[in-house]
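Consortium newsletter contribution from the modelling node. Members have asked for a concrete example of what our holo predictions look like. Here is one, prepared for the nicotinamide-adenine-dinucleotide complex that several groups have been discussing at recent meetings.
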Amino acid sequence: MKYAFEDIKDTVVIVTGSGRGIGKATAQMFADHGAKVVVSDIDEGVCKEAAEEIGRSGAEVLPIVANITKREEVDAMMDKTVEKWGKIDTLVNNAGVTKDGLFLRMKPDQWNFAIDVNLNGTYHCTHAAVNVMRKAKKGSIINLSSLSRTGNPGQVNYSAAKAGVIGFTKALAKEIGSMGIRVNCIAPGFVETRLTDAIPDKLREEMIKSIPLRREGEPDDIAGPILFLASQLSSYVNGAIIDVNGGVY
Ligand SMILES: NC(=O)c1ccc[n+]([C@@H]2O[C@H](COP(=O)([O-])OP(=O)(O)OC[C@H]3O[C@@H](n4cnc5c(N)ncnc54)[C@H](O)[C@@H]3O)[C@@H](O)[C@H]2O)c1
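And here is the predicted structure:
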């Protein structure tokens, strides 16, 4: 096993957007370490497929179809989780979207979509989960930002949302650390998933040349550090932003 974090066993973990990509790899890695995993996605097909695949090894998996921008769906997800397993130890706010375009042509819909899923969705899930975690006086919240938070042309909406996730993480860590709940953030660089599928080969080659490790990230490269933030190996890490990008800053 690549990462051995024994205390992950029997913890209850919700990973949003875990029907594919980084979220699916993360859900799989938690399951491989004996966690009980909520596989959640807006896309019913991939949600059920991923849950079935992860469950095949005997792991305890609960598929929940939910749109993180809809508070009532988020609340229902927390309720179903607590009903089944009685607690929530870790929330991974992974679901995210891009809707790229140059600023001068960016329509309000494009702007709102990126902010709504990446930032407002993170607020809804966290707000609902903290209400459960605070009763247990423990928990770990892991948010997904991005290297793009430093400003990517053609992504003002996404960059703004992912920079917002950093401020959210730092402020909340200060606010709820005293409740025993840690809040941290992973900021991936360039990772091979559906999100980066559309990048033309030539640009992809150029990007890889600019990465000191000379390769794109794989979803497992991000899942490992997420597991670290959920485990007691990171018990004194709070309000941290961990860049996982092969050395690009
Ligand atoms: N891939 C990268 O290079 C990269 C880089 C930096 C940050 N990230 C971040 O990592 C996270 C995962 O990205 P990925 O590359 O695995 O993307 P992905 O597109 O492969 O998977 C994202 C999943 O989120 C789901 N989703 C979208 N909107 C949702 C909603 N409203 N409610 C619930 N689920 C929803 C999608 O259906 C999809 O299954 C995102 O937050 C993304 O911004 C990715």
